[in-house]
Amino acid sequence: MAELNVRIENKQYIHGTNVLDNIEFNLAAGEFVAIIGPSGCGKTTLLNMISGLEPSEAGSIVFEGERFYGQMCTQIGYIFQQPRLMPWLTIEQNLLLVQPNSRPDTISELLASVGLEGKQDCYPRTLSGGMQRRVSIARAFLINPKLLLLDEPFNSLDAPTAARLRLLLIKFCQRQRCSVIFVTHDLQEAVYLADRILFLSQPPSRIVHQESITLRRPRTESGTDELSWQAALLAKHPSLLAGSVN
Amino acid sequence: MAELNVRIENKQYIHGTNVLDNIEFNLAAGEFVAIIGPSGCGKTTLLNMISGLEPSEAGSIVFEGERFYGQMCTQIGYIFQQPRLMPWLTIEQNLLLVQPNSRPDTISELLASVGLEGKQDCYPRTLSGGMQRRVSIARAFLINPKLLLLDEPFNSLDAPTAARLRLLLIKFCQRQRCSVIFVTHDLQEAVYLADRILFLSQPPSRIVHQESITLRRPRTESGTDELSWQAALLAKHPSLLAGSVN
Amino acid sequence: QKSPNVRLGVLKYGTVNWEVDVIKHHKLDKKYGFTLDVLSLGSKNASAVALQSDAVDIILTDWLWVNRQRANDKDITLFPTSIATGGLYVANDSPAKDVRDLANKRVGIAGGEVDKNWLLLQAYAKAQYGFDIKNETKPSFMSPVLLNVLMLRGELDAGINFWHYGARLKAKGHRLLVTVPEILHALHIENDVPLLGWAFKKPWAEQHANSIKGFLQASLAAKQILYSSDEEWTRIRGLTKAEDDEVFTRLQTEYRRGLLHRFGLQELTATKDIFAVLAQHGGHSLVGNATSLDEHTFYAFDQRLLSWNPVVEDESAR
Amino acid sequence: MKALDDIPKHSANQTVINWPVFVTRLSPMVFLTQATSRWLLSRIATVLAVGVLWQVVAWLVASPDFPSCTAVLSSIHFHLTQGDMLLNLWATLNRVAISFVISMLIGVVIGVLMGSYSQLNKLTDTALIIALNVPALVTILLCYIWFGLVESAAIAAVVLNKIPTVVVMIREGARVVDRDLLAVAKIYRLSPSRTFFKVFLPQLYPFIMASARSGLSLIWKIVLVVELLGRSDGVGFALNTQFQFFDITGILAYTCAFISIILCVEGAIFRPLDKLIARGSAHG
Amino acid sequence: MKALDDIPKHSANQTVINWPVFVTRLSPMVFLTQATSRWLLSRIATVLAVGVLWQVVAWLVASPDFPSCTAVLSSIHFHLTQGDMLLNLWATLNRVAISFVISMLIGVVIGVLMGSYSQLNKLTDTALIIALNVPALVTILLCYIWFGLVESAAIAAVVLNKIPTVVVMIREGARVVDRDLLAVAKIYRLSPSRTFFKVFLPQLYPFIMASARSGLSLIWKIVLVVELLGRSDGVGFALNTQFQFFDITGILAYTCAFISIILCVEGAIFRPLDKLIARGSAHG
Ligand SMILES: Nc1ncnc2c1ncn2[C@@H]1O[C@H](COP(=O)(O)OP(=O)(O)OP(=O)(O)O)[C@@H](O)[C@H]1O
Ligand SMILES: Nc1ncnc2c1ncn2[C@@H]1O[C@H](COP(=O)(O)OP(=O)(O)OP(=O)(O)O)[C@@H](O)[C@H]1O
Ligand SMILES: [Mg+2]
Ligand SMILES: [Mg+2]
């Protein structure tokens, strides 16, 4: 039951070299896939192509059996690498923008769950970097997406907050049964969250390794199982994180 | 020989609540201080006040015995939380902007050392998030600062790159003998790099704990000494990372 | 039965308002069987626009304009009402004796490059003295108001302006160095030549023969009143915006002097001669595609209409 | 404001009792927030300062071509009471308002389209430059000749003159709109109208404000010419009449009267808009 | 371009051999990069299309008030060869160029100051609005009266008219400048001039381009009025002569001639500038 089919023969920016090279993977319904790769390898580009923001000339993105061009036909939530809030709207208005008919208490509940109680009426510029990021996470959650794309979402958040949000993410995915593609630089985080990890190489990027994580849930963030699993993986493929083929 | 004296009685944004509350610390010449605190506690605000970008009405910032208002009298390097590159200048021009008389090979060496060989003539928008961040790191290094302020610099970088840049930072500080204030969310990173860690509380933020790290250098990033030191600290003050007083 | 309307476009500040006021005051329009609708306009160009866009039926303009429009296939015609007067003004204490003394002096011209008096002056200077006034003096073109101001301030050594501005110059102690009759004489034109007149579209005039006849009669009647009655002038003094008695008397005499009294064959010939002179000096920018005086430029009307009073002695025609 | 205060004079006695109540009700709400009253004071102070400076310079120059401030004020008073200044101001104001609204609307739409679609921009760029550079005189003349000497021709002439300048400005703004924020709108599938009004337009506000501000003044300048060439009322018509009689005092009187109206419009419309727009911006 | 091509006609024979060499040298460098030549073609196509459309409409309307394109062209030819169109165009172009440069320079400086210092802005805002709304007629008239009927008075009148609109536009731009990037300049202690030219000004480019584009057209419109009221050459002076005789063909001929010059200026100056500015922007 492959829900999302990604096949990209290659991707090249204008005046640029090849960024992606023969990337092909499936995503089952409700599956949580983490993507790890060196900085600048094309992770954001990949998410942009899946979401339809970047055109994919050679290849196809098929979601729920429908191929799409340019505009997604299903609700997708995308947490961009930058928060991308509208500076002229308050936090509440930023959330209402994507889901106009949400009730005020839904919004304040959601904000509370990301640790931003009472910040409804603040403008984005009066928030810290991490707070803005949390608003953008709340925004993606608000629309009840079928497909969730996350680009390093817990970056620039302190450890306890990040842990809390990871928990929130897991709960949300279970309730919503949405498929998730999660870009991160943190192997530990990936092991904790994902069903499968894709490792990308240096550009032109290919998938150098796929690893299904068979640890049963619920997992613990720095649990011994998880840590040893991670250690075993690194022992087997020592250069995996560096993005080179082993 | 306290080089930098920070004394902030309180800091309040217009229409905002108290952010900082009675923050006071010294920085010896060549000392490396890490600051850890929950998201939104005022770390960026603190750096902005030290650098003179935010006015400090109640309190004083004294650097090398000179009190300053508004404009630093010494070369300082500040790696902002966002890369803040000029979009209309190429990478090379962005670097030349802050140090007009630097030689081309200095620049290409520096870029190579942050893993951006041959990207001189790219415009910032054609770089990935992590690459832009690395340019902003290079920019701070280029001016040979006496005081280096870093706001989560290795965020959004993959593990191997981050490790390489941490090493670079250590080397740079040794060569340059500059004092460093380093904001991070990663205790492990702080233990690896810093001479001292300041823990901030939830706002209104105070310094809830100071810990000198007496491990001898050179340290190893996930060395056993470092990890056990970290574990011991967390065992002693379990709620330290959450920013609450223990 | 309701009398037909005649829509007249006039300049808000123009001298024609005096006549209109007289018509209205004495109900001359009613007397001659029409109703006069007056549309005030802001500039000379505006009245041209108004006629072209059928916003008014009659405007006051000069016959060269009409002739030129005729050359552009516009069937407009003109009933002449006033003659060319004025001339070249200089300050009373100006040392200039004739136009040659103006060499390298600043001469202001109000009507632009193709002002009739300016063109006539060029022809005159050349014919009389072989003097190329256009190239040997420093002519500059400006709006009439500005010209008066600069003349009075002494920033111009000589100037050509419209008659009611000229009247003010005279009142403020300026004299005529050359007059139009002198110029005409030098060019061997011995009759009055018309300057302005009522212009209207010929088809309209043909369809509204009674209206136009009534209008012309009313206009002449009003002129007759202004010509002979000083009391009437006292009544309209407010309209003239004369700043003092001197200017007021000047305006009164100049106005009377400028009225056209005859327009017969001789005058027509004189006009044709003038056209030749003007065409030669003004060139294309003056006459456009009109190479000769169109025979319908002047409205064919009953000549007896005009023979209504004696010609005043022109004081400037020494 | 003087000009407008004159109108209800006759009924003033009748409402004399209700007036203060109305004022006290209104003033704390609309007028006298502290910032606003401070601003109002500073504005009045500036106007007074300009007036005093003028008066002093006029005394020093003492030339009939440089009428003093008091002379102009008394001329305003004269024209208000004896002449038809009110009528003229009203006519001009009407024309300015109508053509302003029309040309801003059309101009913003075209500007946004040209700024967003570079293909369209390439096609219409030349036409835009041509439209931009046709002299006002020509447009006005042609409008009058083709449509007749009617009010709508006057409005059309002004609008045709103004639209290209709005387009140029808005286009430049639409070109630099943040694509990242538009990507957000696309991902979250905002309807086109929501995208336009909530994401696109707010980024254009500085450009729209600039073109509205300079546009208002430009429009009123064009209206002056339009009135000169084919209307029988309005400030332009009056100004020309004054000009013909070289009544500099009168010219300045009309100018001052109109500028004071514009100052009121500025204060009542643009300034609140400015504040609304500045919310959430770097200025706060 | 026709107008300018006429000048070196007499010496054409003399250089006839060097010409092609020069052209082949120059063309690959400046003119015939592929994008430029495509753009040039599209521009010429647009101009031709406008011309053809005009001609067709003129045939259909067949009114003396709507001269056909060919009539206007032959009028241009006539004025070029018999009249002093070249002289007039040159005079106007000179005035436009001088006053454009002066008013852009002064306007940008004042605009930047007002946009950056909100205190200064508060003080001068009222004065700006007053300056913005003084009718062109009044400024021109007063300049002529006070300075006399000289060239500098004409230039001063245009500049005084134009500066406020530039200021309004640049001010709006300076208000929305990214404070974060200015903070970078401050931290890295760039000299004020470097900060201004390398950090501040590039953010104003869209506003400067918009005000330059609309400014050029505005200036030439004001120059027309200035020439109308007190100069003895220039397009405005010629237009007025044409207008006096209602010579619509002549008016359109002058208009077209000037617009074609502006089109060349656009292509030769603004377009390359545009490209320069777009480097590194979201459009690339
Ligand atoms: N310009 C501002 N106006 C008002 N309040 C502000 C402003 N900037 C920051 N704040 C508030 O000050 C507090 C501290 O912000 P700051 O950016 O210093 O946090 P931080 O510690 O850097 O957080 P993070 O780790 O998320 O970057 C936050 O609560 C924020 O809402
Ligand atoms: N608009 C663009 N034009 C040209 N090249 C681009 C553009 N955007 C990205 N690139 C290039 O594509 C490559 C991949 O960029 P991408 O942003 O996808 O990296 P990433 O994997 O998300 O990196 P990071 O972890 O640093 O965010 C980089 O080498 C970058 O230089
Ligand atoms: Mg990325
Ligand atoms: Mg921060």
From TrEMBL, chains A, B:
GO terms for molecular function: ATP binding; ATP hydrolysis activity. It comes from Paraglaciecola mesophila KMM 241. This is Aliphatic sulfonates import ATP-binding protein SsuB. The gene is ssuB. SMART domains: AAA. The lineage of its organism: Bacteria, Pseudomonadati, Pseudomonadota, Gammaproteobacteria, Alteromonadales. Residues 1-227 form the ABC transporter domain. Transmembrane segments: none annotated. It holds the Pfam family ABC_tran. Belongs to the ABC transporter superfamily. Keywords: ATP-binding, Nucleotide-binding, Transport.
From TrEMBL, chains D, E:
Pfam families: BPD_transp_1. GO terms for cellular component: plasma membrane. One of its GO terms (biological process) is transmembrane transport. PROSITE patterns: ABC_TM1 (PS50928). The chain crosses the membrane at residues 40-62, 96-115, 127-147, 243-265. It is a multi-pass membrane protein. Keywords: Cell membrane, Membrane, Transmembrane, Transmembrane helix, Transport. Its main location: membrane. The keyword Transport applies. It is found in: Cell membrane. Gene3D superfamilies: MetI-like. Residues 89-270 form the ABC transmembrane type-1 domain. Belongs to the binding-protein-dependent transport system permease family. This is Sulfonate/nitrate/taurine transport system permease protein. It comes from Paraglaciecola mesophila KMM 241.
